[in-house]
Amino acid sequence: MIIETEVAMPRYGMTFSPWSNWSEENTPPNWWTGNNKVKHHRSEHFNQANLKNVLNATAGLLILLLLFYSKDLDYLDPAPKLFMPKRFVSEEGNGLRLIIPDGTTLPWS
User: In the chain, how long is the greatest CA-to-CA distance?
Assistant: First the structure.
């Protein structure tokens, strides 16, 4: 589910698939690799410190946080203003309700 999840940035007409690289075995997300290169060898890989990697990392974090907090909460209020997950939530009032797209339940449900 995480690999296929997209996050939209409607204000700017952008969509991110921050975990899509995980579909390939032993392949971390591009933004993860870029972050590690900048962190450990900044002078050699400064070009990896870019907006694309930051936006994908933020979208990836949003996905993980929503899944993590869904363990205790099934509703997030207020909904994020800049990023909107496209796959496993629905807008409800001012917040988001978690929906599992394939009809399965989460392991902790």
Answer: 47
